[in-house]
Structure formats: structure tokens, C-alpha cells
């Protein structure tokens, strides 16, 4: 599968997000609605995206007890989303409850099941975090692959990880296990608060299924040009 792009719509209001989607309309068809935009204008924004034929990744990173996360995941199906995420740290019972309840509900109501994705280690974190939290893994890579194994066993479709970890994930869990990779930074963009970063061109060579990219496009004075440059890098 070629590497596809998901643009992170991290905006404080509907009009800014909608203007960007309109601006990028013929280049990007997959968008991420995360905490900021969901809290400020989630329902309206998702409706706008879906009525314009776009795909939606609902990124609320659920991290709670199994019953709460499974109920929230089922409730999110009313938005006709294409991808949904939880934190793998929430546990294998939480993830397997989510996957079985979502699967049963979608089968029963003949709905297309959204991709179920678990966040492994946030791309804003590095080895210092493992030490600080006394996590007994040798490296971020080992930790991420271990969480990805648990995620797959729990019936999920893939993980959020850094592109740096994609080869190891694919080698261990197979090529069909999806990798969704934020922390993407073209050489010309600022790193901001990201730590485990990779350029779009490297991400594509590493076999990422989806790259998630926000500020290099959303904070650019010429977002369309920025998106075009990134797409060119992916297809090089
Ligand atoms: O789940 C995510 O999407 C996510 C996980 C992660 O480990 N790192 C990460 O940056 N993200 C999200 O990906 C987006 C990255 O945005 P930029 O750093 O602006 O490109 C943000 O919306 C983050 O919330």
C-alpha cells in the first residue's frame, strides 16, 4: 500500500478548519479530528467533512476502563468515522472489549467498521520518558513493538507509532497490520514539540501506511503548496 496522508485539523474553531479543508480539497481526502477541534466544533466539523466526501480519523485517544472506552467507541459510530484510536496503555482487556463490541455492532447494523488503532508511545516522547517512568524496555523501539503485539492480539487493525518503528512493526506483525505515523517533519519545517521525527520521503521508504501531519501544513502561510510539496516527497 502506498503511503497516504492524513491532515491533522488542530484548530480552535470551525471556520479555520473548514477553510483549510476547502483550500486542500483536491489534494487531501483524509482528515484527523483531534481533541482541540472535537471540543470546539466536533460535530459540525465531522458533518462538514463527511458531506464533502472526506474520510475522518477521530483521534480522541481513549484511555479509561474497558466499559467506558467500549461505550464511547460505540457512541462515536454515529459520526460515520473511518478510523478511531485508544491508548494501548489502557490494557488488552480494554482493547479486546472495544474490538469485539465494535465488530458485533457493525455486523448487526451492516456498517463499515472503522479502523481501530492504538497509540503506542507518543511521538513527543523518547527514551528519557521510559527511564522517568521506570519502564523496563531496552529502547523506545522494543517498547513500541511490544505494545503493537498486544494491540494486534486484542483484535485491533494497527497502531500509531513513529515512522522510525514501522519496519520492526511490519517485520514482527505482518504487512497488513496498519501503521499510522505522526511526528512527520519535512526538512524545511520546525520540529515543534515532536521528538521521534521522520521526513515524508523517509516515511514513504519505511513503508508507513498513513502519515499524520499537522503544523507543517496547517501553520504554513501557503498550506496548499506545503501539502503539494509533501505529496511530491511521498511519491518520489
Ligand atoms: O494519535 C495521534 O494522532 C498522535 C499520536 C502521537 O504519538 N503523536 C502525535 O503527534 N499525534 C497527533 O498527530 C498530530 C501531529 O501534528 P503536528 O505535530 O502538528 O504535525 C497532532 O494532532 C497530534 O495530536
Automatic annotation (TrEMBL):
Transmembrane domains' residue ranges: none
Residues at which substrate binds: 10, 32, 59-68, 123, 185, 194, 214-215
Top-level EC class: lyase
Protein's UniProt keywords contain Transmembrane: no
Active site as annotated: 59 (for ompdecase activity), 61 (proton donor), 61 (for ompdecase activity), 64 (for ompdecase activity)
CDD domains per record: OMP_decarboxylase_like (cd04725)
Key words, A-Z: Decarboxylase, Lyase, Pyrimidine biosynthesis
GO cellular component: cytosol
SMART domains (alphabetical): OMPdecase
UniProt pathway: Pyrimidine metabolism; UMP biosynthesis via de novo pathway; UMP from orotate: step 2/2
Assembly information from the UniProt record: Homodimer.
Function according to Swiss-Prot or TrEMBL: Catalyzes the decarboxylation of orotidine 5'-monophosphate (OMP) to uridine 5'-monophosphate (UMP).
NCBIfam families per the UniProt record, alphabetical: PRK00230.1, pyrF
Family according to the record: Belongs to the OMP decarboxylase family. Type 1 subfamily.
UniProt name for this protein: Orotidine 5'-phosphate decarboxylase
Species in which this protein is naturally found: Flexistipes sinusarabici (strain ATCC 49648 / DSM 4947 / MAS 10)
Amino acid at each position: 500500500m502506498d503511503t497516504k496522508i492524513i491532515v491533522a485539523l488542530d484548530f480552535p474553531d470551525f471556520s479555520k478548519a473548514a477553510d483549510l479543508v476547502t483550500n486542500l480539497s483536491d489534494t487531501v481526502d483524509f482528515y484527523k479530528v483531534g481533541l482541540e477541534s472535537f471540543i470546539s466544533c466536533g460535530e459540525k466539523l465531522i458533518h462538514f467533512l463527511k458531506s464533502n466526501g472526506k474520510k475522518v480519523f477521530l483521534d480522541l485517544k481513549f484511555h479509561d476502563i474497558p466499559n467506558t472506552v467500549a461505550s464511547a467507541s460505540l457512541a462515536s459510530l454515529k459520526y460515520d468515522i473511518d478510523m478511531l484510536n485508544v491508548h494501548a496503555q489502557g490494557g488488552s482487556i480494554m482493547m479486546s472489549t472495544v474490538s469485539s463490541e465494535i465488530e458485533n455492532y457493525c455486523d448487526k447494523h451492516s456498517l463499515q467498521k472503522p479502523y481501530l488503532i492504538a497509540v503506542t508511545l507518543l511521538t513527543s516522547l523518547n527514551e528519557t520518558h521510559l527511564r522517568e517512568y521506570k519502564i523496563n524496555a531496552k529502547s523506545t523501539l522494543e517498547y513500541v513493538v511490544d505494545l503493537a503485539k498486544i494491540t494486534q492480539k486484542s483484535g485491533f487493525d494497527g497502531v500509531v507509532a513513529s515512522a522510525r518503528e514501522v519496519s520492526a512493526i511490519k517485520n514482527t506483525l505482518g504487512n497488513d497490520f496498519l501503521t499510522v505515523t505522526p511526528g512527520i517533519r519535512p526538512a524545511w519545517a520546525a520540529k515543534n514539540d515532536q521528538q521521534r521525527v521522520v521526513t515524508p520521503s523517509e516515511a514513504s521508504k519505511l513503508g508507513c501506511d498513513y502519515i499524520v501531519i499537522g503544523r507543517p501544513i496547517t501553520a504554513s502561510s501557503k498550506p496548499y503548496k506545503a501539502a503539494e510539496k509533501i505529496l511530491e516527497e511521498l511519491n518520489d
